[in-house]
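Friendly challenge for the regulars: who can give me the structure tokens for this chain first? No prize, just bragging rights.
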Amino acid sequence: MEEKKTIKISLSSFFLMLAILIIIIMTYFIYKFYNEKVLATKEIEKLNTQVISLENTVNNSQDTINTISNNTNNSYSNSNSLDAILLDTTYSNNGIEFKYPSTFNKTDATFNESGYEAIEDNNKNRFQIQDEKISSSMELKDIIEREKTLGMPDGSNYRTLVKDEEYTTLSNGIKGYRFESTTQDNAYQIIFMTQKDTTAYQFTFTINDKSTYDNYIEIANKILDSIEIK
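First reply, four minutes later:
Bragging rights claimed.
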């Protein structure tokens, strides 16, 4: 009897220990699950905060864009800029023809004397035309790259920033390469380069008067679209 009693006690102790062990394991997993849930909740709250911040940033950016757009529209309506953009004069020289505002005047330089000719207004905002014969060893892309990396005597680049560069086709059907840049003398340039036969043509619009930047961008694009190369 005593032996059976001992065996019964031993089994009871074993099951008790097993139950305690199971409780400890379950407690550990419950605790772990709870912590993971808390961390997941915090991560979700963090992501929600980031989403709200991004939405606010987008809304602020849109407000800024709307403000700039409204200011630009107001500047057009409150000035004579629309009259200035009227292309009422024809330029024709050296096989090139385009329309430009009468507020611009031809400079003294000519193709024969300097390799370029230009028109500019009283604020020295200038539309300059250059042509260059392309040898058999040179392609338009080489001239484009040379122009983008144009160097100064001290070894620095004349262009401090080149952006928005792309191959494009003007509305007049002329295909070429267009890019915009800032320069060391704080001017802003829009450059369009194209090629016909063995001649490369470069059209550079230099904006010095930053206060009327938007107007001159429109003028530059209108002039480019009116170009004819004969």
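Residues 1-78 form one domain. The first helix runs from residue 2 to 77. Your move, everyone else.
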